[in-house]
Design goal:
The chain is α+β, with helices and mostly antiparallel strands. The protein contains three helices and three strands, in the order E-E-E-H-H-H. Helix content is 40%, strand content 13%.
């Protein structure tokens, strides 16, 4: 069985009914680990709290889903340039992109 966690807004609690009519509430709170247990707010039902890591994974999944499709014309033109020996490498641009990537990781 697969679980799908994307598509939910962090401010929107999710209620679902489980076996024997039990309800589970899902909330989103920064910086806290996932917890389960009885809670007065949910009438004694289990509660799940999404962590920052889970929200980050949701954002990554959304970004991958929205990624553009491969541009086959561009791929063919690069292949042709590589085969002909006319492909030019812009070392400065590559260095800039590596630095941008490193800054995103921090």
């Amino acid at each position: 069985m697969t679980s799908k966690i994307d598509g939910y807004k962090s401010s929107q609690p999710i209620l679902s009914s489980g076996a024997k009519g039990a309800k589970a509430a899902v909330s989103d709170k920064s910086g806290s680990a996932a917890r389960t247990g009885a809670n007065a707010e949910t009438g004694g039902a289990d509660q799940v709290t999404l962590t920052q890591s889970a929200r980050s994974l949701q954002q990554v999944a959304a970004a991958v889903a929205n990624a553009p499709v491969v541009d086959t014309k561009k791929v063919e033109s690069v292949k042709l340039a590589l085969n002909n020996g006319t492909y030019k490498v812009d070392a400065g641009r590559i260095a800039d992109k590596i630095l941008q990537f490193e800054k995103l990781l921090k």
